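ligand=flavin-adenine dinucleotide
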Amino acid sequence: MTELTAEVVVAGAGPTGLMLANELALAGVDVQVLERMHERTGLSKALNLQPRTAEVLDLRGLLPRAKDRAFATVADGHFAVIPIPYTGWDTRHPYQLGIPQAEVEATLEERLAEQGVKVRRGHELTTFTQDAEGVTITAGELRIRAKYLVGCDGGRSTVRKALNMPFEGIEGQGHGVAADVLFESAPPGAPTQWRSMTNMVTSGSPGKFIGVIPLGERNLYRISFGDRLNRPRNLRAEVTPDEVRAAVTERFGEEAGIAEIRWASRFSDDSRLAENYQVGRVLLAGDAAHIHFPAGGQGLNLGIQDAMNLGWKLAAELRGRAPAGLLETYEAERRPVAQQVLDNVAAQNALIPTNPNQLALRALFRDLAAIPEVQHRLSGMVSGLNIKYANEDPHPAAGTRLPDFPTRDGHASTLFHKGTWVLLTKTPQPKPHKEVLVAEVPELPYPDAERLLVRPDGYIANTTGETKPWLT
Ligand SMILES: Cc1cc2nc3c(=O)[nH]c(=O)nc-3n(C[C@H](O)[C@H](O)[C@H](O)COP(=O)(O)OP(=O)(O)OC[C@H]3O[C@@H](n4cnc5c(N)ncnc54)[C@H](O)[C@@H]3O)c2cc1C
């Protein structure tokens, strides 16, 4: 038995666990990352970064690396496959970045290694116990004593189950299959570049859908298909090549020749949310805390943003500079965001027609979605740009994300690369606290504000510059 100590153990090196480990390492926290699998799968899974996730990565200087690995920039998002532009938002990133999940993970793991943290692969967390001072974690022959454990171990989370945490929600009726298919030549009528959500999904008979996204490599496509009304008895059964061939033939006809099925997996339309995100010294993040149908492309994005919210709070708690109750705001802030995503996914599901009444409803909704105010509301939800955390400062900007804006030396986002608090001020200010970076700027995005105190995750704490409620 190998015995180790750490301040935080992160279980799971998916996008959520890797982002969290990066945030903790940036704050100087001694973090150990346990990953069940011996190697990264390289599976494409999620294909997009939403605007807020692009902003979040930009706050840490990671966006250029992600862009280098991306295969598309998509001008709009979608709600129930009705294209929704992001143009009404004050953001430098009003687009979806087309990037496979494996490449997001590679980007985050590369940065983590640069920070001196190596993922412990082939180490599956099996059990843990917690007491007043810490958590003892067992992963095979490894035992780690830590101050905190965070379960970032996906939808079937061992950590969540060991906590006996209720994971309630909606049991879906249907299912889907995602497959990366290499064709012998571009299938007839298929787009060669992913530029918009338009025409990416078609529906055959009621309840059925087929989506086609070109993955940037010649003749390689993501084919997503399924049935909203039926599911196989065993949702974990391997996808057969015949199932994929049948869907391809239905969409493109007999002449579409498949050269290789690179990867195929089933997903369900179940929707569930953990009752709590924290029990003592054990926390949950990402799919371990919430699962839903991948409508609108939000799951990975939600997980990365959970990690961004939790990292600095956990670090502050460990360094003894967190005011009472700060760590609890992780659940208070992030659980409602996940609930909102689950609700919008349920609404999107209801707009995929399975009968004539729903067809009419969808047509009406499509008309309504063309109204700019409606578009703004929908795009805010799906992009993550509309998030506003509870805040006592009455200024409407307090609790919202800081829009990136030009400063004397570039853009405000670069001030956040070290993961500290930032005080943006139009007039000279003394440093209010040793943890705060003070930056004098000629203008602020809100003309009526003289200064903005901004949290390490890029949300505006207040317009007074007062650090007391946040930093002890
Ligand atoms: C087909 C499909 C398409 C999708 N498309 C999109 C999309 O377009 N956009 C989007 O935003 N989201 C999408 N999603 C959702 C997205 O993939 C997930 O939300 C995302 O993977 C969640 O990341 P995570 O790190 O929380 O969990 P995971 O990615 O599941 O990572 C969990 C990690 O924990 C490891 N692990 C599990 N148990 C243990 C243990 N006991 N000990 C140690 N390690 C453990 C696992 O091996 C895994 O590496 C899609 C999902 C699917 C299935």
